[in-house]
Amino acid sequence: MSDRDHEHLAMTRSEAVGVRAADWMLTKRLAENWSEKDQDALDSWLAESPANLLAYWRLDAAWGSAQRLKALRSATQELNASSTGHSRYIFRLAAIGAIAVVSGVAWLSQSYVSSAKTYATPIGGHLTLSLADGSKIDLNTDTVLSISESQGKRLATLEKGEAYFQIRHDEAHPFILSVSNHRVTDLGTEFLVREAGARVQVALIEGKARFESANASASIEATDLVPGDVITATSDSISLSKKTATELKGDLGWRRGVLVFDGTTLADAADEINRYNREKVVILDPSVARLTIGGTFPDNDVSALIDTAKQVFGLNVQRRGDQIVISR
Q1: The domain at 257-327 falls in which architecture?
Q2: Which of 41, 105, 155, 319 has a CA-to-CA distance to 112 between 20 and 30 Å?
Q3: Which comes out higher in pLDDT, residue 233 or 110?
Q4: Minimal CA–CA distance to 50: which of 229, 202, 182?
Q5: CA-derived radius of gyration, the chain
Q6: Between 1 and 271, whose confidence is greater?
Q7: For the domain with range 117-247, which CATH number is right: 3.40.50.720, 3.50.30.10, 1.10.230.10, 2.60.120.1440?
């Protein structure tokens, strides 16, 4: 068993990820001879799992001021006088402890500082958060969001679902949202974010924001967004498109309890309304799925969609337990 294995033996997996992330960050920031080979090794570790990348980003966001950096660099130079693995291990623990003291961050890849608050909505639920700084966040159906502060930065993580952010800009205290392997930094912003498994979509409504994502090699790609920009990101691709103000307003219809469809396929309309209801609309016939509809529908009532299917298209509707099957 290697020395590193011994070091991590008594840790949980999340703690080990946090410690490893701290090791990488401290080495990169404090080493005077950081090389391209070192960067390649870091990129490989970041690419191993989303947990690695998230832990590294959170530590980076929590990093202290230049004075603390200078103090830790001095400690590094003293400890590097000894080349033993034992001394290196002591330095890593001491450095981790020092950052934990000054930043209040627990080294866990899947959690914020102890002061973090988590908010959640059930299926069909909505929640509006009014933050102390004047910002507002609207949570859509089946959504989980965590919020905390660290080193003067306002931090949030969208674990799942969809949320609309109206952020009061404060250059000295940036607002940073993490979602999957991506993050959004507020630059005076109103933006909509939706997390759907491996797919993340960010639409900028007003102001400016910076979208950052890890590419296949785990290096960070950054895009500055302007109103109307819509970023769609997966684990291996990023695309940028544009939407009109009217289209974006339709995307925010859920804030007033409605879904707005415009040339939407019946399959997509069913998927969307299923997000808000425990009764699920099922369409098995591809020819039915491709039919398109338009209009404004209540988000918590599938009957309007069913009525449209029957009256406009003459389709059959059958209830099977908690499923509503639409067919020809």
Answers
A1: 3-Layer(bab) Sandwich (3.55)
A2: 41
A3: 233
A4: 182
A5: 24
A6: 271
A7: 2.60.120.1440
